RNA sequence: GCCGGAGUAGCUCAGUGGUAGAGCAAUUCACUCGUAAUGAAUAGGCCAGGGGUUCGACUCCCCUCUCCGGCUCCA
């Protein structure tokens, strides 16, 4: 049989040769590094015979697929250790995930940190024993027999679609020593091939993610191709912790979450308030540039409004309860701005000549999030949407969607994000919408808009809002994490529910389409992402304090204040450090606060009208710089991006 | 909401069934200094809140609140 290698060379082997033998035929070094092989795109164990030729690739720990195999095998060993050490434990599922793996168990008592240490020790013993993994093929009935003591495994076996697994009524399992686990594989040749792993934490998880089902104990771990890689990964986790927006919020004095306010509710301190103002200003500016008019609407509205909009039907669990005095109709705090904008549209009769009508608002909304999910300002109960609603004709939909996408991408780029991925979410099953053809038009228009902007996207079938399909734009931050921010949703339902119409050129009433769009999503969440993305060291145009001035001694205070005055007149946000600390201490404080620019002024500067300039992130300073020149440079650096 | 962990000075954290500790920050004084911590002194606490057990609770038990890690959900 012939195997075609990735470089297109062909090697010829006897049929039935194993993947390992094939790797040896290529080279002994490769064979030693091999953890699995890939034949015609299918990952397989090294020890498994190859019957027919095809495209062949050796998988090592240098690739994501190799790490996937490594982590999957490590998860098996975790399960093996748990079953060894905990009487009465049974195991559910244990897949590899990004950067690691987890395994879910049903155990009488949750795992403690000490338990994790014991498990790591046991796993190390299993790895040291270098037990070979053996692939076992069995019939479904045999498998149910073999896993009879483990109810979750039996449930999995019974739910497997035979056609999907192998086209036969067979399932596979992997055995090492006395331990066997149901698994599609592939696995490492033996347990000794795991170079480095660590258990990270345990937590609760539901069987199949269903709150109504058993609560299991999930153990998270990670595994890497080398001890150095593991250390690097643990270091990255620490770095992520250092840029945690809650920690930086305290350190940089941006915002806090007073317990007296309740979960998910933040107060913004002066520096955080400045950050907000800058973000809000930019939002208003771009709205205006893209042809949106700003509106203002109240925080509460009659409950009836939410009945009409359908939110009480679909969204009630996230809404705060009704506020009502005796004899009045009862009010709800708004979780969304849409119905209010609809009311503006409806305030008088509309003509086709007025469309598209684009209404924008920085609207404060409140949502009752489950207590366990609130997370700083990334997931709050009160937040501000940079919301807009566009009313347009069917013929305008495609162009409007393109304009909205353009707006969204401009916004994100201005804040320093330039890697995007989009999800196109299509009609969900729960959508109780009669105008199906409108859904089809809408979904096609969104796909067109994405293609017109050359944004990579994937289709998420059935994940649209109940009122229409949507595009969600995800950004990648400085340490590679993906965040969902912007959303553009085409709404075919709200105009119908509110009976919206406009008078067309032929004097007939027509129902408009509606487009919901949020660029940041939640301004607070977006600012949290900004804090983590920049690790608190904002680009100069966003920095609450742009320049701090440090007089060397207190006889320089007056000059420092004059410099401040002159920079403020140039439009900069400037602080002077008038404390009696040493220069080194003041510098340290300015750097810790991540101020973009530091000006040190002393005797020479007073004599020559100069300053010493040091920029954040540059470990050097520029002395004897004429103040005029420094001002020009700083003003240039502080310019907003678009 | 569920599972687990936690809450001690503004921040980071020690501590123990017998009257509460450190570092940083703060305040005062001295120092007046040229690019990441000058020194000394002072002040600061209903040990999250409420019940209980106990001669005695910050410590043990129960409830509530808030936070953390997940599940689930989502902007």
User: Strand share of the residues?
Assistant: 25-35%
Task: Give the mean pLDDT.
Answer: 89
Strand tally, please?
Answer: 32
Major sheet strand order: 16-19-20-27-24-23-21-22
Indicate the low-confidence ranges by residue numbers.
none
Silhouette: globular
Question: Which structural class matches the secondary elements?
Answer: alpha+beta
- Supply the number of helical segments: 21
> What is the end-to-end distance?
61 Å
Radius of gyration: 31 Å
What are the defining features of this structure?
642 residues, eight-stranded mixed β-sheet, five-stranded mixed β-sheet, RNA-binding
Task: Write up this protein.
The protein is of the alpha+beta class. Helices cover 35% and strands 26% of the residues. It contains 21 helices and 32 strands. The strands form eight sheets. The protein has an eight-stranded mixed sheet. A five-stranded mixed sheet has the order 2-1-5-3-4. The longest helix is centred in the N-terminal third of the chain and has 22 residues, at 64-85. 38% of the residues are buried. The model has no long low-confidence stretch (mean pLDDT 89). The chain binds one RNA strand of 75 nucleotides through strand 12, strand 13, helix 9, strand 24 and strand 27.
Brief synopsis:
The chain has 21 helices and 32 strands. The chain is of the alpha+beta class and 642 residues long.
Topology of this protein?
Layout: E1 2-4, E2 10-12, H1 19-26, H2 28-33, E3 34-39, E4 42-44, E5 54-60, H3 64-85, E6 90-91, E7 96-97, E8 100-106, H4 113-128, E9 134-139, H5 140-146, H6 151-159, H7 162-165, E10 170-176, E11 179-182, E12 196-206, E13 215-224, H8 227-242, H9 245-251, E14 255-256, E15 267-268, H10 270-289, E16 293-294, E17 300-302, H11 303-309, H12 311-314, E18 331-333, H13 338-345, E19 357-366, E20 382-392, H14 397-414, E21 420-425, H15 436-452, E22 457-460, E23 470-476, E24 482-491, H16 494-497, E25 502-503, E26 509-510, E27 513-522, H17 523-534, E28 547-551, H18 557-569, E29 574-576, H19 583-592, E30 597-601, H20 603-608, E31 610-615, E32 622-626, H21 627-637
Parallel strand pairs: 1-5, 16-19, 21-22, 28-29, 28-30
Antiparallel strand pairs: 1-2, 3-4, 3-5, 6-8, 7-8, 8-13, 9-10, 10-11, 12-13, 14-15, 17-18, 19-20, 20-27, 21-23, 23-24, 24-27, 25-26, 30-31, 31-32
Helix pairs in contact: 3-4, 9-17, 14-15
The chain binds one RNA strand of 75 nucleotides through strand 12, strand 13, helix 9, strand 24 and strand 27.
